[in-house]
Design brief:
The protein has 11 helices and no strands. It is mostly helical. It has helices at 2-5, 13-27, 34-41, 45-51, 55-77, 85-99, 102-110, 112-120, 125-142, 148-164, 173-190.
């Protein structure tokens, strides 16, 4: 009876997702397996396999969930600005959050070919999620419906290198500002607005 009372409850889905992201940040996508995730989630591999058919499936779910969270955070922290500067600032913020994410940094360092593919072939489930977010929060707010797909593709293609290439020195505010400014200029042009503008300088 005492053994039953002292049994440890299995981790929730959120805890497993966090462990998967921590494993990616520590080991990179090629070296992350169920063993590392189980250890970080304080559980065992059989529990993980009962809930996820494979490590790849778990990593896909965890990273898609994290991408949604990061994009939601970008929407929450961007100061209100007139359109289209608000939409530009939103893209810049989301790209910064992603490139400074620990898992993205490790992926870029340990598996540059994967980053290269993600930039040049925007056709995965993660790209689809980003596309939908851009349509809802960026291109759908500032361009006509007939031009929405073209503009969304332009913004996504432009922002991907900035989102998936970590800065050389993440602690350097001048480098962050310079990267943000370059992306801001490019996204302005994607949306048909010539930078710089007074609203974005606020």
């Amino acid at each position: 009876m005492s053994g039953y009372l002292n049994a440890k409850a299995p981790p929730g889905v959120g805890a497993v997702y966090r462990a998967a992201l921590d494993a990616l940040a520590q080991y990179g996508p090629r070296r992350t397996g169920m063993t590392q995730i189980a250890r970080l989630a304080d559980t065992n591999r059989p529990y993980l396999y009962r809930n996820w058919a494979s490590c790849q499936r778990l990593l896909q779910e965890a990273t898609r969930h994290e991408l949604r969270r990061v994009l939601d955070v970008a929407c929450e922290i961007v100061d209100p600005l007139p359109s289209p500067c608000a939409e530009v600032r939103l893209v810049v913020c989301a790209a910064r959050l992603l490139r400074e994410h620990p898992a993205v940094g490790t992926m870029a360092r340990t598996d540059p070919a994967l980053v290269h593919t993600a930039i040049l072939r925007p056709d995965s489930a993660w790209h689809t999620l980003a596309w939908s977010w851009l349509c809802d929060h960026v291109s759908g707010q500032v361009v006509a419906a007939a031009d929405r797909d073209t503009v969304t593709l332009a913004v996504l293609t432009t922002a991907l290198p900035y989102a998936l290439t970590p800065p050389a020195n993440p602690s350097d505010p001048a480098e962050r500002t310079a990267i943000d400014a370059r992306l801001s200029t490019a996204v302005h042009l994607c949306l048909g607005v010539s930078p710089p503008c007074t609203d974005c300088e606020r």
